[in-house]
Structure formats: structure tokens, C-alpha cells
Amino acid sequence: MNLDFTADEEQFRDRARTWLRDHLPTEQRPPDGQPMREFDVAWQQTLYEGGWAGINWPVEFGGRGLTDIEQMIWYSEFANADPAFTLNNSCTFVGNNHGGPTLITCGDDTQKQYHLPRILRGEVIWCQGFSEPGAGSDLASLSTKGVIDGDEIVVTGQKIWTSYAEVADFQELLVRTDPTAPKHKGISWVICDMATPGIDIRPIRTMAHTNDFAEVFYDEVRIPLTNVVGDLHDGWRVAMSTLSFERGTAFMADQIELVATIEELIVEARQRTGRDGKRPAIADDDIALRLATARAEIAALGAMTIAGISRNRRTAMPGPEGSMIRLFHGELHQRVYQLALDIIGDDAFRLTPIDGDGVWTGPYLQSFAYTIGGGTTDIQRNIVGERVLGLPRVK
Amino acid sequence: MDLLPTPEQDEIIGSIRAVLAGRHTIGEPLSDGLWSSAVEQGWFGLSVAEADGGVGYSIVEEGLLFAEIGASCVPGPFLATALAAHLAPRLIHDGGRTALAEPEGDHLRVIDGPGADRVLVVGSGGAELFDIADLGELTPEPALDELVGLAVAPRPTARPIATGDVTLRAHVLLGALLAGIARATGEQSVEYAKDREQFGQPIGGFQAVKHRCADQAVRSDAAMNQVRFASLAARDGRDDSLFQATAAHLVAANAAIANAQWNIQNHGGIGFTWEHTAHRYLTRARIWAQLCGGGYGAATQLLSLPTSG
Description:
CATH superfamily of the largest domain in chain A: Butyryl-CoA Dehydrogenase, subunit A, domain 3
Distance between the termini of chain A: 40 Å
Order of helices and strands of chain B: HHHHEEEEEEEHEEHHHH
Oligomer: heterodimer
Strand order of the largest sheet of chain B: 5-6-2-1-3-4-7
CATH topology of the domain at 167-304 in chain B: Butyryl-CoA Dehydrogenase, subunit A, domain 3
Largest sheet of chain A: 4 strands, mixed
CATH architecture of the largest domain in chain A: Up-down Bundle
Number of helices of chain B: 9
Shape of chain A: globular
CATH architecture of the domain at 167-304 in chain B: Up-down Bundle
Strand content of chain B: 5-15%
Number of domains of chain A: 3
Number of helices of chain A: 11
Shape of chain B: globular
CATH superfamily of the domain at 167-304 in chain B: Butyryl-CoA Dehydrogenase, subunit A, domain 3
CATH class of the largest domain in chain A: Mainly Alpha
Helix content of chain A: 40-55%
């Protein structure tokens, strides 16, 4: 047990800090469409050219081959640089944090050689095609068909809750390739080229006023069998590896950003007049206690993150304990923004964007995604109960 | 940077667990056998330098010890005795017990008074160690936790044996005790949820119970890791050590109380009985949560402490 950074890690931090000072975009991120894609892609390219893309990815695929600690240092320097946008609110998220890591673990050489460098260089955008209208929390009951026809899979069906589908080039797609097998055994994980004929995308507007969500319809979409990642019909195992990355370190950036958020909120509570119309908001005992508790819990979240990295260092794949961090983080993130709405007084009437300086109501609306996306908190509790604590499975 | 115990630290934890398991049953008072073992094993000088007669480990290992003491719910003056050893290291090996007192109105509120040789008075101005005889008469009071020996006494007028600041160390060690309770009550619930059957299956298969167990595990993990982080920050003398320690006390107190409360609910009727140990954890957690500037005061104080390392 130690809190020491190595000399290399300290140097890495210094270089990151200096580089961010010179390269961090200062303009607002466009909220949707092609301008948003261009902004996100330009930032990814800037990162790649600066040597900050794929920090913990293998060197052979264009990554830096560094550790999760260095990845954590980078996120923390990014958050400290007072960015005008949130790192994970980006259409590069799935490529960097789901698709890419899954290919690294389960992809074949051709798939890795082709896709990984393109993701890191910001040449392509990936999206996710997991949930369906009839398969949300019960993901393994998905019914989008993948019929094998020669050396192709012919996909017909529907996916939902796909962020950034309209601007994506590729999709990590789960399809049922063996309808006769038990539900976890007949699924395949395939790379779907979003330009393939037969794909129809319909945007879904969210309660946070964003338009990057979508339904995706597939009408006999032909995908080469060589795009199957892992073995045919073994997609559930591949998908679980994606989700363990998501629950492991993918949300580290959000978790670290929360440190800056609570400090900003404490400043707001000192500067704004409270509910009595006279004293600062922080003079209210209830507000002060909630702020203090959140500040302490965010410190604990940081400690859990380091413990998670320490655990992952000892194993090849992130374990189910990542769900504990995800669960704690999702609900804590929500509590922070609920508290913010109680602190900002009359500004709670006014809508703000979901990122930027001094914005609270937009992120408050967006915070509801944190306990739903990537497996609801109910599902995370099942995972903790069953896979960490060994309680009997849900019947 | 690493937050998991080293193999050597795991061995320390293992030997502490063996001593506690062999010499303490939850719900029983502190045995003389356990106290002598603790003295022999050097528990009260664990983080005192070897030059001063201690074992020469740090507050990190001391935190591991106190997490195990918390998890085993053993009563007794462990905390104040360990804190006093830093004010007067010559007392480490004499086997003496130190009660803990805090101002309450014009008087002192004393815990672990019966059988104590000394008393550590912890107030906002610092800590003072006295001979127990200097306290005057202790008036016993019924305690929320019958095993902590609650009493009130007049403030001493004698000169203290030693003085110093124990705030940082007290927050870390109380955090460790409470994180231990959070862990133990979570584990007790999981064990019961696997064992107890209703409607033809273990109750841990029902989401209502399973999800409460998951929440207990999350609270316990948050508390334990924050305590470990805080103990390292304290050992290293970081600028944020008081913030981390106060945060550890607060997060662990909330975790211990919530987990102990839900543990009673998870056990149903048996959890409400005197015979069952569930209430022991709860009442102990309530006391440890409020000691040494825990509770509301610490929570709001935490807002003005620096967080950067």
C-alpha cells in the first residue's frame, strides 16, 4: 500500500499538464450533428498527434503501452485544466472505451490491425448496438437475427439507445446467430459497417435535450463473417468483456471530473445567497452537511478507483468489483447535481448546456443516464450480489 | 500507487484475526486474555517508533489492526490506549488501560472508565492524558452500548501526564473501526441471505435482499478504501491528510451505521433479539461515529480543509 507516483509517472504528469495548457480547445463543443463529430474527431486527432491517445493500449496498435495509473493521471490533469467540455461526452467514447478494448482482448490480428489505429487516430467513430426494445436489462434475450448465408451474416432487427449512431462509421453489434441454443449461447459480436445498405437510423431526443441517441433498424444487412469478434455464437462472453471494461475503468474520467465539480459547487454555495434570502447557501446546515458528505464520498470514490486499478494490475481482466465503483459513482454523480439544483436558487429555472463552465441544470438532466446506461443500477446490484458476494442468481 | 495490502500486511491482518477470533466472542466483555495478548503483540505501540519502544510500523498497519478490532466488535479501551501511547510511549508495555473522555457541558463523558488506569481527555484544544484517579468520582450511566462503560465525571484539575494533538490519528483509527463494522455487518447479512430459506429458496436470491447486500458491500468498499487512503496520507504527512482522515471518519461512520441498520432488517425477527449480535454492531457504530469530533462538527469542518495532495 502506497500513494507514491514513480519518477516516470511524475514526468508523465508534468508533460500532460504542459501539453494540455497549450492544446486544450477553449471553444464550446457543438451539441449535435456533424459539427459535434468534427469537434470530437479533431480533439482525438490532436490527442493522437500529441501522444495522448490510447495511453493504456498496447504500443503495437498505436497506443502508448502505459498503465492505468498513467491513464488516471491524464484524466486528472485534464479535469484540472478547466476544460470547456466533458471528456466522456464524446462520440469517440465507444471506440476508445468499449470497441477498442474489446478488440484488444478478443479480436483477431486482422481486426486489430485495421481498426485499432483508426480509432486512436480519430479517423472513425464507433457506436454500440446492444439494447433492443425487448432486451434491455435482460440483454441476453435479444432477438435481432443474424442468419448465416455463405460467408456473410444477414442481419434483420432493431437496436435502441444507440448514442451517436448518425455520425458513426462502425458499430459493435450483438445478433442472435443460433436461435436454437440457450439464450446466452447463440449470440455473436460483430463489427457492423454503418454504411452498409439496409440500415435506417431514427434519432431519439433525450430528456436532457440532446439528439445523439437513436434507434437503428436493420433490413437484411449483409456483414462479412470475418467481422465476427471472438468465436461465432460466443458473443455473450465477448460482450461481457466489453461491459467489464465499461464498469472497470471507462468511467474513470467522469469519476475524476466529479472532484472538480464538487469544488465548483462549494464555491457556488459560498457565493450564492441561500434559501433564507440573506446568508450564503452554505450557511444552511442541511446544505453544508450534504456538501461535506458529497466531498468525502468523492474522495472515497477516488480511493475505490485506485483500489480497482490495484486489483486489475493483479488480473488479466477487470473483475465484477468494477460494478461496485460504477454503482457508487452513478448514484453519487446524481446526488451532486440534485444538491446543485438546491443551491443555485433562481438559476434552477434556467436550462444550460450539458457541458461547459458553471452549468448545472443541463448536467442535472443528463445525470439520470448515469444510473441507467451500461446496465441500470438494479442490474449492477445483481452483479455485485451474485458475482462479487456469491448470492443465488435471479430466477 | 497501490491500495491493496502487501503480502506482509496480509500476514499482519491474518495474525490479528487469529488473536481476536481465539480470545473474543461478540457480545461478551473484553477478556483479560485478549488484553494481555494485545499488549504482548505490541498492538499499542504498533505505530510508535522502535527507538521509543514501539513496533516501528506506521498508522497504515495500525489502521489494518483497528479495522479488525471493529469487525470483531470487541469492546474495550483499544483506541484511547493506542492514542495515549503516542503522547507517552513509556506506557506502551505496562499493560495499563486508558479510558476516553470528552467534554459534555460542564462535565466529562467517559467511556471504558471501569478498570482503566488512565484517561485521555480529547477536546477541541487537543488531548490531555491523566491518571484515572485525577478524574474524581465516575457516575455510571445507562449506555446505548452496555459494553462501553459510560459514565460522567468532573473535569480534572491536576496537571496532565502528557498532552498532544490526536485529531488526525483518531479520525483514521475511528474510520478503521467503523469500516470494520461496515464490512462485518455486510458479511453477516450475506451469510444469512445464503443460509436462510423462505418460499423454497435462499432469501439472498430475492432482489429486495440481494440489493441491500450489494449496497452494504459498496458502502463497505468505499469506507475501507478511503480509510486506507487516509492512513497512507497521514503516514506520508501529505497536505490533505486531515481532509482525508475526516472524510474517512465520515464515510465510514455513514457506512457502518447504514450497514448495521440494514443488517438487522435482513435478519428479520432474529435480528431484533437481544441474543443475536446484530444490535451490538449498531450501538457500537453509533458511539464510534460520534467520538473525537466525528458527526456533524467534523462533516462541516471538512468543507474548509485542503484536498490537494
